[in-house]
Amino acid sequence: MPKRMPPEVLEYLQSLGKKYGSQGGKKAAKNMTAQERKARAKKAADAAARKRTAARLARKRAERTRRSPKR
Description:
mainly alpha; flat
Protein backbone atom coordinates (compact mmCIF):
# COMPACT_ATOMS: atom_id res chain seq x y z
CA MET A 1 0.00 0.00 0.00
CA PRO A 2 1.48 3.39 -0.95
CA LYS A 3 2.31 5.80 1.84
CA ARG A 4 0.19 8.91 2.06
CA MET A 5 1.79 12.30 1.81
CA PRO A 6 1.29 14.69 4.75
CA PRO A 7 -1.39 17.28 3.88
CA GLU A 8 1.00 20.23 4.33
CA VAL A 9 3.48 18.76 1.86
CA LEU A 10 0.71 18.02 -0.62
CA GLU A 11 -0.63 21.55 -0.30
CA TYR A 12 2.85 23.01 -0.83
CA LEU A 13 3.45 20.93 -3.95
CA GLN A 14 0.04 21.87 -5.35
CA SER A 15 0.79 25.55 -4.83
CA LEU A 16 4.08 25.15 -6.71
CA GLY A 17 2.24 23.46 -9.56
CA LYS A 18 -0.30 26.26 -9.79
CA LYS A 19 2.38 28.92 -9.66
CA TYR A 20 4.98 27.46 -12.04
CA GLY A 21 3.21 24.66 -13.89
CA SER A 22 2.02 26.74 -16.83
CA GLN A 23 5.53 28.04 -17.55
CA GLY A 24 7.01 24.71 -18.61
CA GLY A 25 6.46 24.81 -22.36
CA LYS A 26 7.26 28.50 -22.73
CA LYS A 27 10.53 28.23 -20.81
CA ALA A 28 11.49 25.04 -22.63
CA ALA A 29 10.88 26.66 -26.03
CA LYS A 30 12.88 29.72 -25.01
CA ASN A 31 15.88 27.55 -24.18
CA MET A 32 15.74 25.47 -27.39
CA THR A 33 17.33 26.07 -30.73
CA ALA A 34 15.13 26.38 -33.82
CA GLN A 35 16.12 22.85 -34.80
CA GLU A 36 15.09 21.44 -31.42
CA ARG A 37 11.75 23.26 -31.54
CA LYS A 38 11.14 21.90 -35.04
CA ALA A 39 11.92 18.35 -33.90
CA ARG A 40 9.60 18.67 -30.91
CA ALA A 41 6.78 20.05 -33.07
CA LYS A 42 7.25 17.25 -35.62
CA LYS A 43 7.12 14.62 -32.90
CA ALA A 44 3.91 16.13 -31.51
CA ALA A 45 2.32 16.34 -34.97
CA ASP A 46 3.20 12.70 -35.69
CA ALA A 47 1.69 11.60 -32.37
CA ALA A 48 -1.50 13.55 -33.09
CA ALA A 49 -1.75 11.98 -36.55
CA ARG A 50 -1.32 8.47 -35.09
CA LYS A 51 -4.04 9.21 -32.54
CA ARG A 52 -6.44 10.48 -35.25
CA THR A 53 -5.73 7.44 -37.41
CA ALA A 54 -6.32 5.03 -34.53
CA ALA A 55 -9.63 6.74 -33.70
CA ARG A 56 -10.73 6.62 -37.35
CA LEU A 57 -9.88 2.93 -37.64
CA ALA A 58 -11.70 2.16 -34.39
CA ARG A 59 -14.81 3.95 -35.70
CA LYS A 60 -14.64 1.97 -38.94
CA ARG A 61 -14.25 -1.29 -37.05
CA ALA A 62 -17.22 -0.48 -34.82
CA GLU A 63 -19.33 0.51 -37.83
CA ARG A 64 -18.45 -2.71 -39.64
CA THR A 65 -19.44 -4.87 -36.68
CA ARG A 66 -22.76 -3.02 -36.37
CA ARG A 67 -23.58 -3.49 -40.06
CA SER A 68 -22.47 -7.11 -40.39
CA PRO A 69 -25.39 -9.49 -41.06
CA LYS A 70 -26.37 -11.84 -38.27
CA ARG A 71 -26.03 -15.52 -39.09
